[in-house]
Amino acid sequence: MTTLLDLKSSVLRQVQRSQSLRTRREAPPTASSPLTHCPPEPLPRAEFFERMNAILQKQENMMRAAQAEPPQEHVDQAFISERVSRTELDLLYEEAVYTVVNRVGVPAPEHVKSDDELFAYLLKVFDMGDEEHEIILQKVQESKRASFSLRVSVMKAKNLMAKDANYSDPYCMLGILVGQSPRETEEKKERKFSFRKRREKLEKRSSTKEVLPARCIQVTEVKPETLNPVWDEHFVEIDDVHNDLLHLDIRDHDDDVSVAEACKKLNEVSGLRGMGYFKQIAKSVRSNGSSSSGSEENVDDFLGCINIPLNEIPVAGYDTWFKLEPRSSASKVQGECHLILKVFTSQRDTALSKRDTNFSIHKKLLSQIVEYEHAQVKQREPYNWNGQVSPPAWTVLTHHAVQTDLSPLQQAIRWQCYSNHHRNQRLCYSLLLRLLRTIDAEWDPPTVRGDLLSDSFRLYTEHCLCLMKNMRQVFPCTSAAAITRYELMLGIGYMQNMRAFKTVCPLRNELHLDITTAVKKGTSEWYESLIAQYKPEEGSLEEQLKKMVQVIDAVCADVQRGQNIYNKLFYAVKVDYFSISYRQLEKQVADDVNVAMERVCGTLEQESSRLTQTMGETIFELFMSLKILKGFREFLPLDAKMLALTGFHNWFKSSIHKFLQIVHDRSCDRIRKAVGTDQPVQQAKHSCSAVEVTACFSQVREIWLQLSWPDSAGAFIFVTRLTDNFCSEAVCYSEMMTRKIERNQLARDHKNFTVQLCIGLNNVEHVRAFLAHLPRDLDWPGVERAMEESCGAEGKEQVYKALNGQLFNMDLDLQREAKRLITVLTDKMLPELRRYIQHISLSPDSINNDDAVSPLMKYLQDTMVILTANLVKENHTVLQSMWELLLRMILDAVTENRGVQVEFYNRFQYTVETLLQFFHVKGDGLALEDMKSGDYKVLDEELRLNKCSSFDLIEQYYLEKISLQKTLKHTPYGRISVKCYYDPPEQRLTVEILHAADIIALDANLSDPFVIVELCPHHLFPAAKSQRTQVKLKTLHPVFDELFYHVSPEQYRHRYACLTFTVMDYDWLSTNDFAGEAVAPLSDFCWPGRPNASAAGKNVQPVILHLSRSKPKPIMRMLDARTGDREAQEFVRRLKEIEKSMEED
Q1: What is the mean pLDDT of residues 597-622?
Q2: pLDDT tens figures, 780-802
Q3: What is the model's pTM?
C-alpha cells in the first residue's frame, strides 16, 4: 500500500517532469511564506467551518452577480471614417436642394410636401446658415431644370378577350400623347417628335397608330395564341412629365387572311366547331366596329387600351396591374396589364452630378443624413437604433434615389453606408441583417461593382471579428439587450451563404474558421487581462495562491456564461464556442496552477515546514475551484481525457494530507468548545454538543465528498485517515462528556444527576449512530471495488479489514465510556440498593415476599421513570448495567448466607423473577434471552442448589464430575485404561484396571502409584467398600489387576451413579499423595442393551479415562456451610483431605 512518503515522492517526480507552458518568471519563496517554521496568528476556529461552507457553496454562488450596465462597444481607430470637408458638404447640400426643387410625382403619405420644411431639415443636417442656404438655393433656381425620362416596363397581361377562336395573338403599342404645355413656341419647334396634336382631335382617331409617327410608336413582340401573355419588355420614353399622357394599346395580330379562312383553319385543327361559331366571331368583329376603308379588311383587332397622365405617377413609380379601357362606348374589352413605370432625371445641372456617379452622390447624402439622424436618438436608445429616419430625411432620400435612377439593388447597397457607420457608432444589427438579405434578394452582378461590395464585406467582417474577440466587454451577458444584439451580430454567418458574398469575395468562404480564431484569440487575451488584473506572481506564496483562486473563479464564471448564454448564439455560424473557449482557458489555467503547486509541494517536502491553517484553506479552495472548472468538460462534445486538468489532483496529494490534519485539529477544537458551552435541546433527549459534533462530522464528510478523489489508492489512504479522525474525535467527545459529568456529580441531586447522565449517554449514542453510516457516507464499497480492480481480492480484503477495524475499535471505546458513565450512576445508586437488598435478606419469614421486595421495586420504579423519560430507546445499556449490578448484589447476599432456611432462598428467587419482569417491561425493555445469561445463570444455579438437600448436592456434585469427565480430551495428569463389564444374572460388576500412563511424578521424577476404586455416591451404595490395587513402585506407567462389585439395577439406573478411580502416590513415611481421579457413570456399563452388560462383556474394548484434579467447589462450599449435617460434613472432609494432599504436592 502506498504510504504518505510514496505519495509525496510521486507528486514531486510528476511536477518535476511536467514543463510549464507559461513562461512567466517565478520569484523564489519569500520569508513570509506560510509554509515556514513560525506559526502565524491563529484564526478564530469557529470561522474555519464557515469558510469551508463558503468554499463548498462557491459553485452555486458563482453566477450570482449584479446586473451591470454594458460598456460602449469597442471602436477600432483604423475604421473611423474621415470628416467630410466643408466644400464637399456645400456641394452635397446643393445636390440635396436641387433634388427638392426638381421634385416630380405624386408624394406618398409619409413624405413631406412643403419645400420650406425640407429646407429647414437640410439646414440642420448640413449645419448650414440661412445666408449660405439662400445663395445655394438661388444658384439651383438659376440652373437648368432637370430633364426627366419615363421608363416603361410592359410585364404581362391576363384575361384578355379572345379574338381568334378562344385565343388571341396579343401585342402592345405604346407612345406619348401631348397635352397642353406652357412652354414657349420656340421650345415646341425644338421637339424631336412631330406627332403631337390636340387631345380633342386625337379622340376622333381610331387608334394611336393613326396619329403618331411610326418612329414614336414602340411595339412589343406578338405572343401567339394566348390570353395571358408575358412580355417583360422595357422602353424609355422622353417627354414633359407635367402635361403628357402615356397611351398603350393591346391588339390581336391578324395575318393577311380573312376571318372565314382563319376560322376554317381553326376548325380543321380542332374539329370542334363549325359555321355557327364563325358567325359568332364575325358578329363580334362587326360589333366592335371599324372605321377603316373597305379595302382594309385585315385590320388587327382592338383588345383594350390604357391612358396614364405622367403627372399622376407616384414618386416611387408604378408597379401594378391596370385595367384595360374601351376605345369608345361601343367597345367591349376585358383583362388587365401589369406595368412598371418610373420617372427619373436624364440630366442634372449640379457640380457633383458632373463629377461623381449618381450612386456615389447618393451614398454621401445618405451617410450625412444617417449620421445626423443617429445623433438624435443615441441618448434615448443607444444600442437599438434600427436605421429609421425622420419623414423629411426619407422624403429627400427617396426623391434623390428616384431622380438618379438607382436600381433596387443599388438602393439596397446603402448597406455600405450603414455598415461603415456601424464601425464607429452603435447600431441595431437587425437593420444590417435586413440590408444583407435585401442585397441577396436583388442580387444582379452586372449592375453592381464588385469591388464596392467586397470592401464593405471585408470591413464589416473584420469589425465583427474584432467585436467577437472582445465580446466579454462589448456584449456582457449581464445585459439581455447586449446579448440580443450579439445574437443579431452573429447573423454575419448569413453573409457566407449570400450569392453576392460568394461572387465578390470568392477567397473568404471559410468564415467560421475566422470566427473560431477570433474566439480563441479573444479568450486568450481575456485570460491575460485577468492575470494582469490580479497579478498572481506578486506577493507571498499564499497571496499568489489566493490571487490564483480569484483568477480561476473568474474563469469558471466565464465558462458558465459561455455554456449557458454565449454557446447557443454561435449555433448560427456553426462554431462550438464552448469547446473552443473552455479548452483554451483550461490549458492556460492548468499551466499556471501547475507552476504554483510545484513550489508548494517542494516546500512541503522540507522536514521543517508545516502547513498553516490559512494556507491549507487556500489550497483547498484552489483545489475546489479547479474541480469546478474541470467539471465543465462534461459539456464537451468530444472525448476529454487528454485535457490539461485530467490529473490535476496529483498536484495536491501531499498538501491535502496536511490539510486533513488541520481539519482534524479544528474539529477537536470545535468539539471541545461545544462541550464547554453545552445546552439542552428543546424536544430532544440529547444536547447541543451532540448536534454540534454531528454537524461538524457532516461538514467534514461534505468536504471529502466535494473532493471526489479519483485515484483509488489515494482515496483509500484519505478515507482511512478520515475514518480514523472521525473515530478519535468521537471517542474524545465521549471522554470529555464523561469527565464533565463526573466533575458535576457531587453538586447535583439524584434526579438531576440521573437526567444529566442520560443526556450524556444519549449524546454518545447520537454520535455513534451517526458514525454507523460512515461506510455509506464515505463510500467504503466504492473504495473496496476500486482497490479490487487495481490490487485484486487481497487489496479489497485489506481495505475491508482496515476500515471496519477502525469502526469496531471506536465502538468498543464508546461502549467503554458509556459503561464508565453508567458506573458513575450505579455507584451513586449502590448504597440505596445495598440497603434494600439487606432489607430483603433480613426480612423475617412471616413477611410476605411482595412486602419484602416493595421498597426495592419502588426505588427502581422511580429511577426507571427518570431513565425512560430521558433515555433514547436504543440506549438500554443503563438497564443492562443495573440488572447485572442487582444480580451481583443478590448473589453476594446469597453467598454470604449459605446453609440457612430454604425460605430465604425462595424469597430471593422471587426477587429475581420480579426484577426480571421489571426490566423486561413487557418486551419494551431488555430482552429475556439477554437477561438470562451470565450472572443470572450463576445466581439461578446458586439459589437452586442452596434449596437442595445434602444428598441432592452430593448427587449434583457427581453429575458435574461426570459431565466434566466427558469433556476431557487431554490433561497433564495422565490417563487410566479400564475395562468394565456387568453380569446381569449375578448382578456383578467386574472392573479391570489395565494400566495407567503419563501419571505426574510426585517422588523425584517417579511415583509409586496405586488406584482406589469406589462406587459413588456412598449413600446410594452404603454396603460397597472402596477397593484398591497393589502399589506399583517407581513407575509412571503401572499395570494393575481386576476388582469386583455387587451392583443392583435399582442402583445403576441413577444418572449420578458412577465409579470413581482415584490414583494415589504411596508414601510410607507420610500420607499418600493425590495424583488425579476419573469417573465413569454406571449407565455406560450396566444398562441393559450395552455391550458391557452381557456374557461377551469381557471382549469389549477398554476405556481410556483422562485424570483430572478439579472439584465442583460451589457445591463444596454449600455443603461445608451446613455445619449441622453429618453427611455433608463427612463428604466435605474427604474432599478437603484430597485438596490438602494436593497443596502439599
Answers
A1: 83
A2: 888 888 888 888 888 888 888 88
A3: 0.62
Q: Return d(Cα 559, Cα 645) in angstroms, integer.
A: 15
Bridge partners (DSSP) of residue 1058 are: 1016, 1081
| Phi and psi at residue 427, to the nearest 5° | -145, 155
> Domain limits of the chain?
82-145+351-406, 148-180+211-270+298-347, 650-831, 843-947, 950-1144
CA 45/CA 613 separation, integer angstroms:
10
Greater model confidence, 611 or 695: 695
Q: Which value, to the nearest 10 degrees, does the dihedral of the CA atoms of residues 682, 685, 688, 691 take?
A: -110
Q: What CA–CA distance (Å, rounded) separates 169 from 231?
A: 12
Peptide bond between residue 1017 and the one before it cis (omega within 30 degrees of 0): yes
CB 427 within 8 A of CB 466: no
**What is the rounded distance in angstroms from the CA atom of residue 284 to the CA atom of residue 726?**
114
Task: Give CA–CA dist 1030/1036, Å, rounded.
Answer: 14
First CA to last CA across the chain, in angstroms?
56
Say how far apart CA 1106 and CA 1077 lie, in whole Å: 8
pLDDT in tens, 894-918: 888 877 777 888 888 899 999 999 8
User: Cβ of 677: how many Cβ atoms within 10 Å?
Assistant: 10
CA 1065 from centroid of its chain's CA atoms: 87
Q: Examine residue 1022 and say whether the peptide bond preceding it is cis (omega within 30 degrees of 0).
A: no
Mark out the alpha helices in 155-221 (DSSP H runs).
185-189, 199-202, 208-211
Classify domain 843-947 at the CATH topology level. Answer: Methane Monooxygenase Hydroxylase; Chain G, domain 1 (1.20.58)
Q: In whole angstroms, what is the distance from residue 824 CA to residue 814 CA?
A: 15
Q: How confident is the model at residue 671 (pLDDT cuts 50, 70, 90)?
A: very high
Q: Which amino acid is at 633?
A: R
Looking from the CA of 139 toward its CB, the CA atoms found within 13 Å total 17
Q: What is the DSSP letter of 72?
A: P
Q: Which residues does residue 680 pair with via DSSP β-bridges, in sequence order?
A: 687
C-alpha cell at position 454: 467586397
CATH number of the domain at 148-180+211-270+298-347, out of 3.30.565.10, 2.60.40.150, 3.40.640.10, 3.40.190.10?
A: 2.60.40.150
- Find the Cα–Cα–Cα–Cα dihedral 706, 708, 709, 713, rounded to 10°: 120
Distance CA 114, CA 133 (A): 16
Backbone angles phi, psi at 1015, to 5 degrees: -95, 125
Phi, psi angles (nearest 5°) of residue 104: -135, 165
- Report the Cα 260 to chain-centroid distance in Å: 91
pLDDT tens readout for residues 261-314: 333 443 444 443 333 333 333 333 333 434 444 444 456 788 899 988 888 889
Output DSSP code: residue 650: G
**Residue from 282, 59, 250, 3 nearest 164 by CA:** 282
Q: How far apart are alpha carbons 756 and 747 in whole angstroms?
A: 12
User: Strand, helix or coil at 1006?
Assistant: strand
Residue bearing cell 413582340: 221
Indicate the helix (H) or strand (E) that contains 988: strand 988-997
Work out the average pLDDT over 405-431: 75
Query: What fold is seen in the domain 950-1144?
Result: Immunoglobulin-like (2.60.40)
Kindly write down the DSSP assignment for every residue of 574-600, as one continuous string: T--HHHHHHHHHHHHHHHHHHHHHHHH
Helix axes 1126-1144, 1113-1121, angle to 10 degrees: 130
Q: Is 810 exposed, middle or buried (0-12, 13-18, 19+ CB in 10 A)?
A: buried
pLDDT band of 565, cuts 50, 70, 90: confident
Tens digit of each residue's pLDDT (9 = 90 or more) over 834-887: 999 989 888 888 888 888 999 999 998 988 888 888 888 766 788 888 898 999
Domains 148-180+211-270+298-347 and 950-1144 share a fold: yes
